[in-house]
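It is worth pausing here to work through a concrete case rather than discussing structure prediction in the abstract. The textbook approach is simple: state the sequence, then state the predicted structure, then interpret. We follow exactly that order.
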Amino acid sequence: MATAQPALPLQMDLDHAAFAYSEDASLLEVYLAFGAKSLDYEARAQDYAAQLPIDLSVVRSTDAALEDTPSDPIWTDSLTLTFAVPDTAGLAPGQYFVHQVRTAVAPGEYELHVRIPGDSARQALRLQRDVLVPAFDDASLVGLSDITLATSITQSDDAQGLFYKNGLDIRPNPNQLYGRALGEVYYYAEAYNTDNLAGESGQYTLLAYVAEANRPQPLPDLQKRTQREARSPDVLVGAFDISDLPSGSYFLRLALLNDDNEAEVEQARKFFVYNPAIQREAPAAMEVSFETSQYASMPEEEVEQSLKHIDLIATDRERRRANNIQDLDEQRRFLMTFWQKRDPNPSTASNEFREQFYERLQYANQRYSNSFREGWQSDRGRVYIKYGPPAQRDPHLYDTDALPHEIWQYNNIPGEGQATFVFADRDGFGDFELIHSTVAGERRSPDWRSMIRR
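Step two, the predicted structure:
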């Protein structure tokens, strides 16, 4: 029998999801995964066991808290986890032990802190994640919980089981990695107040699909559209076979559709695939020269306007390059290259990314233009164009104790996750200014609530 393994750097992954719970609280689930080979085992009579002390806490976000808001944790938990194996020699690379913790918290912006104390053989480990806990208590709004990505979901009647929920045993996958050993990605979510979507049939439509991280459209054979009976909550469970996908980043997306086939609410979860044996097919790029492109004859006025438009999504390097180009033809070539780099499918005649960009710009002009500026130049227009439509808009236009303001909630901005934007009409002229956001690089105002008080 093998001897206990020496201490290695602890491998740990962390994830979370939020669900409806009560009128004034939401259920926060915390998912923890520990690399089996990175744990320290001690021999027992019949097996080997690893014990791992862990401290968890949820505190109010430093970006969302007011000065007079207590900084003490709103929830803490300390526990010692025990993982047993018959023989440490049988531990495989990529093998993880998974644990789950649940707690009810009021909706808001938080920080999740995880600490594993150190000892003589290993340094202490600390992890921190920003957590946005939505409110699900408005019965007039269609709601969709976060998505739990899982390695398996099976029927269960063990109501005392650690991973039991709504008659199911749900084994979460905190590292979101699938591929050779895990050929199916399972998902669990909950839909709320779906009767607001249902037509005369009493049903609504669920669209579930997998898309590449940089492309909004579903992958072939990886989308499902189903009619569901309206109920609240409605448990949404499914799986996709991703064993033939090449290595890369993907999103599992859920959308609840109304009778007009429009998404009322959407949710997404990023995951990763490692399939080294699957080769990605390179699309055959269309041969388009500058001389035959639409850019070669673009009028100077349109070139100037287009350069202003792309400033909304350009990188700092691209902005510097654009500002230094004086020659008109070079500006045209720059625009062509700019959009070509973002074309999700170069083998087609259309550039879906550019088309979506200008669809959003047109919407922003129609919705947010005022006497001061066009809609795409406004803060709400810029955010809409750059990040897309929010999952939820919460308008506060007639509050007696606050200036007119809107709160936008996003379920999953790539690279950011859940996000909040707050816009306020501070001057009373209908021009809504971005005063706070949780997205990196955007304006942050920890005391934004005091900024809008009358």
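Step three, interpretation. Confidence is low (pLDDT under 50) at residues 1-6, 63-70. The longest helix spans residues 352-368.
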